[in-house]
């Protein structure tokens, strides 16, 4: 977590190929080794839950940018996040860290997860993150999924997605 929280806010969201390569070199081994663990293994402490959520949600988006593999541990990240929230571990984290614990709900294509994301980010009280949560929710409410993932996941766009021009991530 020291590495992740040592990055600037811009670096978290920029999509820099050099940073992606560094993250892949530093963390792909951990990601591969731990991805078969059950979510409960990451719920001993708030920091452990947060580290699991980052390892399985945020880091794959850097390590495998543009490829379906970036979404392959989303369910594990979401299960870790849900367990952490259900056990109140999130309340023991600083607000800026909670953002990354709540991200797996925002990245989910399930409407219930999107609604939970919105509630969590509203409770967090950070307007920028709440705006992103709303935008993600709106896309999933409209399309039932994130159309910008279609090509990577080999999905055929629906007529509505084609007509809308397949909303891009933000």
Q: Your description of this structure?
A:
This protein is an all-alpha fold and 170 residues long. The chain has a domain at 13-108. It is 66% helix and 0% strand. It has 10 helices and no strands. It has helices spanning 2-6, 9-14, 17-34, 46-63, 74-86, 95-106, 111-124, 127-143, 150-153, 159-164. Helix 3 (17-34) packs across helix 4, helix 4 (46-63) packs antiparallel against helix 5 (74-86) and helix 5 packs across helix 6. The model has no long low-confidence stretch (mean pLDDT 95).
Features:
single chain, 170 residues, mainly alpha, 10 helices, globular, TPR-like_helical_dom_sf, DUF924, DUF924 domain-containing protein
Topology, element by element:
Blueprint: H1 2-6, H2 9-14, H3 17-34, H4 46-63, H5 74-86, H6 95-106, H7 111-124, H8 127-143, H9 150-153, H10 159-164
Task: Please provide a brief summary of the model.
This protein is an all-alpha fold.
């Amino acid at each position: 977590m020291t590495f992740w929280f040592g990055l600037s806010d811009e670096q978290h969201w920029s999509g820099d190929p050099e940073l992606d390569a560094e993250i892949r070199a530093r963390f792909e081994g951990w990601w591969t080794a731990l991805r078969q663990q059950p979510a409960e293994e990451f719920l001993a402490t708030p920091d452990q839950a947060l580290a699991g959520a980052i390892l399985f949600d945020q880091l794959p988006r850097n390590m495998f940018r543009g490829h379906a593999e970036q979404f392959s541990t989303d369910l594990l990240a979401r299960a870790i996040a849900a367990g952490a929230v259900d056990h109140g571990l999130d309340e023991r984290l600083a607000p800026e860290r909670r953002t990354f614990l709540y991200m797996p709900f925002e990245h989910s294509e399930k409407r219930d997860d999107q609604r939970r994301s919105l509630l969590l980010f509203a409770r967090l009280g950070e307007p920028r993150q709440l705006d992103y949560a709303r935008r993600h929710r709106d896309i999933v409410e409209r399309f039932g999924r994130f159309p910008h993932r279609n090509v990577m996941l080999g999905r055929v766009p629906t007529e509505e997605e084609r007509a809308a021009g397949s909303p891009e991530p933000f």
